[in-house]
Structures are given as structure tokens and as C-alpha cells.
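The records we work with from here on pair a chain with its fold. Here is one such record, which you should read through line by line:
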Amino acid sequence: MPLRKRSGRAPSGAPRGFFVAITLVAVILAVQLASTIVSAVLASRDARDATRQLFSVVGDVTIERVGRYSQAAEDAVGESVLALERANRVTDVDAIAADLYGRIHANPQVGAIKVGWNNGDYVELTREPGGYALRVVVTAPSRAAELRHYDQSLALLSREPDLENADLDPRLRPWYVEAQTAMGTAWTDPYLLFSSRTPAVSAVRAARVGNDVVAVVAADLLLDQLAAVLDGLPVGSGGEAFVFDAHRAVVAAPGAYADRIDAIVRREGRVATALDLDIRGLSPSDAAGPSGAFGQDGAYVVFERAFSGDSGPYWLIHVRATRSGLAPALGAWEGTVLWTTAISAFVVLGAIALMVRVWSPLTGMRRRASTDALTGLANRHEFQSLGSRMIASASAEGAVVCLVILDLDGFKEVNDMFGHQVGDDALEAAGLALRDSTRARDLVARIGGDEFAVILRVDDDSDEDVGARVEGLRAKTALRLAEVVPGAPRLGATAGYVVDRAGRRSLDALVHSADTALIAGKATAKGATYLAEGT
């Protein structure tokens, strides 16, 4: 049987199947490419977000360390004011020297403590190599200035006329002028010292009798030690941290800038500014917000945030670093993102690995930055953040909130008599008592040395019930303190509180009202609970 001639046309099903296969492969490749591009974009965005959060954590750490350092000057000033309100001029120089010695010895961050009276008398105790220098200026019966040198134990080594400071009038110095108009402790802008012409920044407070200023106390921070604090911050390779005042005058800078700052002081007779150090700042209004502000300065990522809260200096923290220097894992992450357009599978695995490496320690750092290390309560920054949200939520829901400020009575005596370890035990006991006496939806924070704050969501807002609950908090805290430190009969707690039913007052306003009630109440009697006026 003869063979039939084959046609040159292929079966119709063959090209259709091939086209379907090619189309399917193309669709898969297109989906894979789109997925790769989307993954790369998302990964790049996550890298930026992670960088910002990491900078925010570094900012929290910086503010906490600088704030703890500057607290020493506030403590030294506050402890001196009461005694000075009983003296309107220099009387017993030896007694004053011993008192200032006790303050400066207990606060190693303080380089000098000085007192200026309203009649022009002046006393200053300054650290110097091997001991201390005491400068005294008296105006009656005739003007005289004396310089004394002491060893480390305040034994007198020498005394001589102080011709260099004979014309010093404390009432004309920036620290005296600043304290005259401030209620409570205030901070000066950076200024140059009268004798050494070196930069200084001081915590100041006026001693008053009635409305009259009797004297002003100032405590100068050791700025070279504050520079060492900045050098020790976790800003990574090539990173830097600075502290500026509101006008961007330099409060403290890394040690590498010391020679430049000294040259500006010697050449121009003024305090250095951020521009002198080639530091470009961000928007002050953005930096003042609770989250700070971010920017770019060449290869550097820049972060700025102002100190928050009603007390302490108004300073700007300025941190700049490269992403790779601050967090090498983030640099590797961005490098991996570049390969995602070619090898999507490796990108996904790399992104997951880096996510685990970056987010786990970041979460831990964030938790530590928001918690008071001693008591485990929320710290001041976390109180500001969570408290503001709680107040806003209560206002939106028409709920009633009660804000309590609680202060420990006799706490300084505990530190003086038993040591700081027992003082720490007392603070821990107070924090535990407050935490045990509140509910999960309430907020408890340590916002100062021996000062605590509580925000309560109130179900029954009658004055008697709210007052009883606040008194219960205070009483349980006092009882716990008595159990932990039984040898301190004056150790206790006083509370001031305010109830917000209208939901229109800010957190800062509530804190101010409760704190005012606390201060006014303690002037009458300690160990009690006081309701703010107008509540």
C-alpha cells in the first residue's frame, strides 16, 4: 500500500499549547518581577522606618543620660536655697564653705556652686586640681575680696586677697539675672565665666523671703564631663551627638570639638554656636514635638528632639550618623535590597534574616528607653507620650480622669542617713505600691527623683470616691515605705490630685494643677492628700 504524502502543516493543537506555555511562563515571570519590585520598595521603606525608630531610641537614651547628668546641678541648687533664705549677707564664711562643700562633694557632675546676695556679697566654691578654691566678696563694712585654697577634705591651705575678682558684682551676672524672674529652678543659656572666660551653663534658683529675692544660688555643670557622656553614646562609627540651647548655642559637644570651641572663645569672646561647628539644625517646631524631627545632611541622617516636660533645661539633642555606622545590620539590609530586582528568592530570605536581626534588639532598646530602670515604671518621656493619648481618649469617650502627683517626704534624710542603696529601695517600694494599687488601664510613672505620677480612669466620679481612692494610693505607699525603711519615721508620701470631667484640659495643665496642689498642701502638712482648687 503506497504511503500517503505528509502535509507540511503541523497539527493545529501544537502551536496553541506552545503559546499557552509561553504565556504562562511570561505571566509567572511578570508576577515574579512585580513581586520583586514591590518587595524591594517595601523593604526600602521598612529600612527607612527602622532607621528612624533606631534614631528615636538613641535620642531617648541621649536625653535620659544628659537629663540624669544635669539633675545633679538642680539637686545641689535646691538643697542650698532653704538655708540661704535665713541669711541676707555673708556672715560665717567657714560655715558657708562647709555647706557648699557638702553639696559639691555629693554631686560630682557639678564644677562650682556660687551664691550671690542682693547686697552684692558673693561666695563661690570651685573644684581645682587637688582640692577646692573659695572666692569671697563682701561689701560691708568695706568692699573686700579674698581667695582661699583647700585640700580635698576642706582643710585650709592658703588665703590671699583676690584682686582679680575684686570688682565682681553677682547681681550683674547672667545666672543671677535669670533666677530673679524664675519661679523655682531655672537654667541659664551658655555663658562665659567671669574669671576664667570659659563656657558654663548653670542651674539657678532664687532664695526668697516673701516676694523679695534674698540671694541666688547657681551650680555650674562640668561641661567636659558632659562631653564625655556624649562621647559614650551608642551613635555608631562616625556618629556624633550634641546638646544646644534654644538659640543653638553649644551646651556640650563631643571631645573632638574642644579645640574649635576654645579657639572661638579666645578669638571672639563668646560662646560657640552650631553654625560655628558646621552643624545645620532642623525646624525648631518639629524638634519640639514628642517624636522629634528627622533630616538629611549629606551622608548623615540627622535627628533632633527637645527635652520634654515642665522641669529641667530646654535643650535640643542633635544626633547625626550614617545608617551603616549606627546600625551595620541596616546597611547590610539596604545592600540586600539592591539585589532584589535580580534574585527575588535571596532578597526574601535576606530581608527576613535582617528583620529578625534588626527588630528584636530594637524592640528591646525601645522598651528600656521607655522604662525607669530602678522602679520598672514608665519614665517621664513615656508618661508624656502615653498620658497625652490617655487624656485624648478619655475626652473623646466623655470619660473622667484623675491625675495624681505623689512626692516622697523625708527622702533626702533617708539618703543621708542610710545611703543611696536604701534610698533606691524606698523608690522601688513606692513604685511597687502604686503599681499594686492601680489597674491595668491606669498609668503609673516615675517622673523625677522622688516624684511619681498616676493617671486613673474613674468610673464613679463623686468627689468622696475619687478622694478616697487617691488617699488609698498615698496611704498604701506610705505603709510600704515604713515596712522597707522602718528606721525613718519621717519617710512618707504626700499627694496632690486633679479631676478632669470636661475633658478639655491638656496633660501639662493637669500636671501643673496637681503639682500646685501638692506644693501648697506640703506647706501646710505632709503625709496627706490635696485636691487642686477649681476641680
